[in-house]
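Quiz preparation item.
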């Protein structure tokens, strides 16, 4: 479900590395949920994932600002929408862990694949053109 594939590469090593970490952390969350790990352990894994998503988004956004990416506002809106959703899941996870975690995992899988393959690939030429990457 959360397997990194070469087709996800944007050919920017720092970003690819962060994307791979996101896939790895989402897989850890999936494994914790499926193994029936304690709610506290699932919540801790979720907390780490949420924090890393925010770090990754901040990094990408900084690079896009440096290269004057013209679609920055739209990309930020995508980041903000996912952040809001994930934070809501994080809050709800403490109340109803199993169904919430499964919905979250489906959202993450879809979002990671689509966002990387579509939105993230759009800014890469700007990074390369300006020597930011």
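Solution:
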């Amino acid at each position: 479900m959360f397997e990194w594939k070469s087709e996800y590469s944007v050919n920017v090593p720092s970003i690819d590395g962060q994307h791979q970490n996101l896939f790895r952390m989402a897989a850890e969350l999936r494994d914790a949920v499926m193994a029936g790990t304690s709610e506290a352990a699932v919540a801790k894994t979720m907390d780490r994932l949420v924090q890393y998503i925010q770090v990754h988004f901040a990094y990408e956004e900084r690079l896009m600002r440096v290269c004057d990416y013209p679609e920055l506002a739209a990309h930020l809106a995508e980041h903000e929408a996912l952040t809001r959703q994930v934070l809501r899941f994080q809050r709800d996870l403490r109340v109803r862990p199993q169904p919430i975690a499964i919905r979250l995992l489906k959202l993450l899988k879809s979002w990671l694949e689509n966002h990387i393959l579509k939105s993230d690939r759009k800014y890469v030429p700007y990074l390369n053109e300006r020597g930011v990457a």
